[in-house]
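Margin note: ligand = succinic acid.
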Amino acid sequence: MLEITPSDASCGAILRGVNLNSTLADDTVASIRAAWLKHKVIAFPDQHLDDDGLERFTEVMGGFGHDPFFAPIEGRQNIAAILREADEDTPLFAENWHTDWSFLENPPAGTCLAARDIPPVGGDTLFADQVAAFAALPLERQDYLRGLTAIHSARAAYSPDGTYGEKDKGRSMAIRPDESALETRRHPLITQHPETGEEAIFSTFGYIVGIDGLPDEEAGPLLFELMAWQSKDEFVYRQKWQPGMVVLWDNRSVLHRATGGYEGHRRELHRTTIAAPAAI
Ligand code: SIN
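Resulting structure:
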C-alpha cells in the first residue's frame, strides 16, 4: 500500500510502500504517476535502485528522453552520472535554477535521480513550484506573460565557449559540449501542463535567452526579475538526500538546482530523463 507524505512546502512528497526494484503492477505505476503529477517532486527513500531497476522504472514512467551534452555511463545508453569527486574544485554542476533541456523541441517530462554516493552533509537539491509561482502573480501580469514566447538555448552552458565548454577543466562528469548548443527553440513562456492542464512558468533565465519581439534591453531585465519571483522561498522545496533514495520530478511544473556544502566528500547520482507523452 503506497504511503504518501506531502512536504510542508508548495511541492514535494515522500512516497513509501513500494519497491522500485520489483516489476511494478499497472495500478501501482498509475498511483505513482498520479502522485508525481500532484506533488511534482517525489522522493522514494531506501530503494537502493540499481541501473537495471532505474532503466525499468524510467520505461514504465514514460520511456527515455533524449539527453544531449552528456556521455552515458559505461555499458548504458540512457543513464548519466551526476558526479563530483571529493577533491574536485570545479564550479558546482547545475547550481543555477533550470528546467532540464528546456531548449529541446520536446523537453523531457521528468527526471529521475538514483542515489549512488551521498555525502554526509550538503548536496541538497532545491525545487521551485512553477504552477504556484504563476498562480501567485497579479492577474494583469499573468495575462501579459501568457502572450510571450520564450527563446531557449543551451549556449551559456554547453557551447564550446559556455560554462561547461572548453575552459572547464578538471570536471569528473562526462559533459560533452558542442556547437549544437547555439541553436535556439521557441516555447510559450507560460505553458499548460499537457496532463494536468495547470499553467506554469516554463524554464527560466539561463536556458531562456530572449523573448520573441522584445529587444534584449527589455527581455533581460524581465527574465531576471521573473527568475527572482520564480525562486521565492514560498515556492521552494528542499530535498535532502539519503543513501538509497530515488527522486523523481516533473520538469513541466518545477525548476530545480543543485547546492553545495559537501566539500571534501564524493557525491554521485545516476540520472535518466523521462520522455514527454505530449509536446509542451
Ligand atoms: C541536476 O540538475 O540534474 C542535478 C541536481 C543535483 O545535483 O542535485
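The longest helix spans residues 216-230.
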